[in-house]
Amino acid sequence: MTTSFEQLLEILSDEAQPLPLSDLAELSDLDTDRTAQFSDIWEHLSNERRRTLIIELGRQAEQQITLIFEPINRLAISDPDAEVRKVAINNLWECEDPRLVSPFLAVLTRDPASEVRAAAAKALGLFVWLGEIEQLVKELLSQIEQGLITALVQDPDEEVRRRSLESLGFSSRSEVPALIDQAYNSGDEALIQSALLAMGRSVSDQWGPQVLTKLYNPAPFIRLEAARAAGELELRESIESLIDLLNDVNEQVCAAAIWSLGQLGGEDAADALLLLLDSAEGEHLIELIEEALDHLAFVDNTRNFLLIDVDDPEDFSF
User: Fold this and answer.
1) Please, what are the domains in the chain?
2) pLDDT of residue 300
3) In the chain, what is the straight-line distance between the N-terminal and C-terminal CA atoms, in Å?
4) What region, left, alpha or beta, does residue 20 occupy, with left being phi > 0 and alpha being psi -120 to 50 degrees?
């Protein structure tokens, strides 16, 4: 029997009952009236109940793209519990509504919990990117960038500073390269990791030498970000090093190398990936390699098309 919205609210209110996981789709895409009804019961739930529910809504939305729990996640941004606030912000990672910028900036500036401020700093990266592709008004982009720069310079928590730098990686603002360079040369491994991520997001070939230098770093998470940045920056001179990283003892580094070789293309990259595919074990690894090979083929075909001399009719003969 299908549970109605009103029945679902009654069940949620009764904390002696487990969450009705199969019925939570009733909370998808709530209109204003239903959001108000939900809010009335939400504020009376225990912290544990609210945490469990907001986490489950995020999980279901990730598994079923038709489920939209944005009204509930927006409501939860101002929840009294820090864990709920953090999860709610993370759940909104795909939402491009510029009306989220103001509450996210408010969290970044004033939230007492560092993990919540870090979540807001990370979430604002999407809006920096939208501003860079002119899908956001310049004034709003400027506010976001200034908020992130202030957090990077002033926030006492390292994770907040790191997430702010990573989000600023999308920005073409003049101050950003110096901030990335400062983090890269800080000697702090975590900051170097964030600097490499920001370099990749910048899509600027000015960072090529710095990225190449870190491909053989002793720290696996630095090798990981360097490997991924090499693909994002289309550093074809990194192909030989990335092929070496296919044998890295760290699986995540290997996965990043696979992805980047798929981005870069070329015969050497294709041969290395095909050789790895022959010996690969595990469904996830095989799928990762096959996706990289598919993208590699697309990249190479695109390059070949661009080399066609449009003045030569023989180039179009079959």
Assistant:
1) 208-307 (1.25.10.10)
2) 81
3) 61
4) beta
Low-confidence ranges of the chain (pLDDT < 50): 305-318
Residues 6+ apart with CB under 8 A from 307: none
Q: Is the dihedral of CA 211, 149, 109, 126 positive or negative?
A: negative
* Tokens 């990936």, located at residue: 273
- Tens digit of each residue's pLDDT (9 = 90 or more) over 156-184: 999 999 999 999 999 999 999 999 999 99
Nearest Cα to Cα of residue 157 among 111, 90, 93, 202 = 111
Q: What is the dihedral of CA 261, 266, 269, 273, to 10 degrees?
A: 90
Judge contact between 61 and 71, C-beta under 8 A: no
**Mean pLDDT over the full length of the chain:** 94
Whether the CB-CB separation of 260 and 238 falls below 8 Å is answered with: yes
Within 13 Å, how many C-alpha atoms sit on residue 180's CB side?
A: 26
